[in-house]
């Protein structure tokens, strides 16, 4: 009988004699494994975010209102510039290459040949060769119409409480109330329809008001041309 065969028989006998002990050891190892798994699972349930946060610590933070993670452009806060500088409106003479035929006078009395009396003159009267009358500034049509003293007229409102009036026009305007008018837009032609100044010849009687009070147009006009 060979040495290998003898050794195997001895090992087999050893296993038979100690089989009970091997089974006990295997049972103990199995129980220990089950206990270890149970403890690990219980720890994970008590702190579910621990492993998640560890795995995500390098991920970028995304804000709730920024699902793509891109920078959000916030609207300008009007309080950042509490005193914005508004573009100042500009008034021009209501005629091209015109001449002032009668000046503004709110204190000194001037002779009115039509009414044959002295009175103030709260306007500038303009004459021009083509007789065209233009809007002095961007605005909105407040009123158009006719009466015996003013003739045909157009009244425009502007920003900052300004109003311009164009009297003694040749015909009734086709502009509608509320219409937007641009500076330089043709309003009509100068004439003698203004009953209170009909003897002054063809002209446009141009008034400027600030908050309902007449002011000298020369104080707001930047040029004698349209």
What overall form do the CA principal axes indicate? rod-shaped
**Main sheet properties:** 8 strands, antiparallel
Order of SSEs: HHEEEEEEEEEEEE
CATH topology tier name of the largest domain: Glucose Permease (Domain IIA)
CATH architecture tag of the largest domain: Distorted Sandwich
User: Low-confidence parts lasting 5 or more residues at pLDDT below 50?
Assistant: 50-54
The DSSP helix count reads: 2
Mean pLDDT across residues: 82
- CATH superfamily (homologous) name of the largest domain: Glucose Permease (Domain IIA)
Number of strands: 12
Strand content: 25-35%
Cα-based radius of gyration, to the nearest Å: 49 Å
Quick recap:
The chain has 226 residues and is of the alpha+beta class. It has helices at 3-46, 48-55, and strands at residues 99-102, 105-112, 117-121, 124-127, 132-134, 139-147, 151-157, 162-169, 180-181, 186-189, 204-210, 213-215.
Task: Give a description of the structure.
The chain has 226 residues and is an alpha+beta fold. The protein has helices at residues 3-46, 48-55; strands spanning 99-102, 105-112, 117-121, 124-127, 132-134, 139-147, 151-157, 162-169, 180-181, 186-189, 204-210, 213-215. The strands form three sheets. Strands 1, 4, 6, 7, 8, 9, 11 and 12 form an eight-stranded antiparallel sheet that branches. The longest helix is centred in the first third of the chain and has 44 residues, at 3-46. The termini are far apart. The model is unreliable at 50-54 (pLDDT under 50).
């Amino acid at each position: 009988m060979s040495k290998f065969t003898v050794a195997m028989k001895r090992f087999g006998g050893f296993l038979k004699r100690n089989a009970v002990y091997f089974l006990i050891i295997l049972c103990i190892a199995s129980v220990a494994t089950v206990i270890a798994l149970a403890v690990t699972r219980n720890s994970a349930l008590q702190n579910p975010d621990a492993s998640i946060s560890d795995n995500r610590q390098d991920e970028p933070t995304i804000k709730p209102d920024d699902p793509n993670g891109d920078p959000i452009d916030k609207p300008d806060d009007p309080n950042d510039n509490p005193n914005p500088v508004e573009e100042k409106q500009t008034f021009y003479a209501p005629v091209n290459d015109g001449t002032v035929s009668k000046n503004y006078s709110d204190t000194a009395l001037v002779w009115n040949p039509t009414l044959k009396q002295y009175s103030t003159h709260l306007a500038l009267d303009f004459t021009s060769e083509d007789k065209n009358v233009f809007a002095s500034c961007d605005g909105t049509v407040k009123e158009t119409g006719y009466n015996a003293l003013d003739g045909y007229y157009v009244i425009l409102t502007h920003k900052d409480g300004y109003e311009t009036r164009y009297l003694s026009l040749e015909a009734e305007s086709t502009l509608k109330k509320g219409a937007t008018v641009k500076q330089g837009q043709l309003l009509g032609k100068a004439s003698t329809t203004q009953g209170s100044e009909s003897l002054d010849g063809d002209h446009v009687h141009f008034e400027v008001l600030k908050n309902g009070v007449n002011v000298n147009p020369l104080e707001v006009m930047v040029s004698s041309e349209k």
